[in-house]
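A reminder from the course coordinator: this example appears on the midterm review sheet, so study it carefully.

Given structure:
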């Protein structure tokens, strides 16, 4: 009787191992890529594409960036760096620091920047924005002291 069970068990193992198509396993890198594509996060490289101006918390004006200058932001897990390229003075606008975001709030704390930005940083190190984050776009919205929207910088993901 035990011999019959052994033969039957071996036959079942053999039959189940004769699948024509090999089972595809997902690697850790593929899983991370799937998570990155399907989740909203700031990690990556972003390019400024336009602005909105608000009145009474409603967009009243919008415009695209100028083709004569570019602004990029790069976020790692904890660090942010941004730079603005202006052909007349390509090194004058940049900043570096840390950031945090939770829910709809983005806070960037700059450690240092270009000469002009260091003057701004001497007065104000932390920059707090309302954040509207989609998979490949985000808006950082400047608020006044009463929490009303003033303007936004609108970015698209480039990497």
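Designed residues:
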């Amino acid at each position: 009787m035990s011999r019959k069970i052994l033969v039957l068990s071996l036959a079942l193992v053999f039959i189940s191992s004769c699948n024509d198509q090999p089972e595809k396993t997902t690697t850790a890198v593929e899983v991370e890529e799937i998570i990155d594509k399907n989740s909203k996060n700031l990690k990556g490289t972003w390019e400024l594409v336009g602005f909105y101006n608000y009145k009474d918390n409603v967009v009243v004006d919008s415009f695209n960036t100028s083709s004569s200058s570019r602004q990029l932001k790069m976020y790692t897990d904890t660090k942010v760096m941004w730079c603005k390229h202006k052909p007349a003075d390509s090194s004058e606008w940049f900043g570096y620091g840390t950031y945090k975001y939770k829910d709809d709030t983005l806070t960037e704390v700059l450690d240092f920047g270009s000469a002009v930005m260091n003057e701004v940083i001497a007065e104000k190190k932390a920059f707090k924005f309302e954040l509207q984050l989609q998979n490949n776009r985000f808006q950082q919205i400047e608020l006044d002291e009463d929490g009303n929207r003033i303007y936004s910088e609108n970015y698209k993901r480039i990497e």
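The beta strands are 44-55, 58-64, 70-75, 79-85, 93-102, 105-113, 126-133, 137-143, 149-157. Confidence is low (pLDDT under 50) at residues 10-23.
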